[in-house]
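Repro:
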Amino acid sequence: MTYSRILGTGSYLPETVLTNAALAERVETSDDWIVSRTGIRERRIAAEDQQTSDLAYQASLKALESAGLAASDLDLIIVATTTPDMVFPSTASILQEKLGIPGVPAFDVQAVCAGFVYALATANGYIKSGMAKHVLVVGAEVMSRLLDWDDRRTCVLFGDGAGAVVVGPSDEPGILHAKLAADGRYRDILKTEAQIAGGELGGTPYLYMDGPAVFKFAVKALSDIAEKTLAEAGVAQADVDWLVPHQANLRIIESTAKHLGLPMDKVIVTLPEQGNTSAASIPLAFDHAVRNGQIQRGQTVMLEGIGGGFAWGALLLRY
């Protein structure tokens, strides 16, 4: 039987750093207020001429280099994003052109902050079924363009960036199990409702979030799905070496780790320096931990994310 495993990782962060102190000059807030409620100290902001596909391209090059493969070795591209370059074509198709590999199938996945877990689970299915051999999976976002910079409840939370992995076949299990979920009944607590009709923009183009409702839902949903994923995979909590969670809020991360019985020194946290980068946050954190030597080959890692939809998921892998 063919299994899939992660062959290489990569990431990219825009050059511009927006600190809490700089934010406090444009909106009524402070570094202490932001840190105490979120754990975030700074975030990266894409340049005006940078699109999601540009960030994705840079992360993809690093992931391919890490995997020891060329772009021509790929036979599928999946991009998880909620901030595409345009309505259509897909950001994955634009990334395919930038990589110079015409003909390779490419599509986007839209599950907001859970998008990377959804995309990686999809890649796993393609490889295990024999429909693909080498799959590029990217989470990329320019969330800063959905923000109302006068709304301190949301503008302090998000940042831009991209992370990528190359997934390939293996004789031994790499991706052990994935579990996905969604519930559209909660769509109104986290959304950007803008829509194009008749040549005009309808609805609010800014991100809206009911913070307390999101927090309450996220803590329970993430804890439950992580527990179910481990049970279905037949893996004990004690056997998990690392948790790589979606980087949304430090209190949510701490709550999930506590539920899994993991100390915080076994949790990868990039939130203070990057903020919430939506679908990019998990691959950004994963690549960071691989490159600094925290996550090593043979270790068992839990990825989990939750975002608007509501959509959420967990994926267990042996790196």
